[in-house]
TrEMBL record:
SUPFAM superfamilies: Homeodomain-like (SSF46689), Tetracyclin repressor-like, C-terminal domain (SSF48498)
Keyword tags: DNA-binding, Repressor, Transcription, Transcription regulation
HTH tetR-type domain residues: 7-67
Name of protein: HTH tetR-type domain-containing protein
UniProt organism field: Streptomyces inusitatus
Amino acid sequence: MTTAKGTARRAALLDAAEATLIAGGHSALSLRAVADTAGVRLGHLQYYFPTRDALVSELLARILQRSLDEVAAAVPSSPDAPLGDLVAVLLAQQTDAELVRVFVELWALAARDESVATAVRAFYVQYADLVAARIGAHAPDVPAEEVRARAETFIALIEGSSLMRSGVGGSPSGATDGVILRTALGILTGR
């Protein structure tokens, strides 16, 4: 049975793990580094997360669920809601350089660790499901395969643009944002 105090300690340790991941990348994400960041003894951290894999697994689940919740909140529930609002919300998230760094590190981990890759793929399936549902509501006569292809292409555009827009690989620009918005809307609407 987990107590409120135990839940709060786990959350604080996961906060420290996320900070360590952002500051030093996936290679710096050791149990000792996380314990140091959290200001606790290694044994204390290992009580909650006995191995690095256990820590990474729970950290990954937390980060991906938080991001999926944000995407779900950004997807308008009404088929009459402007699709541009969805694009604008997702693009606004990309100005958070720390969030983008977390995803860059998750992608790097996924390239080396099949359990991380499995979790990341499951996240993107859910993300695509949300976008596909929105596209399908907007264009109910479009075949499901086309809807899915549009959703996945839209996600590829949005995720790829995060590297340029976040300051990680470039800087945001009004002109580029305009092209991204027009392209994203074209993908979503099929125009």
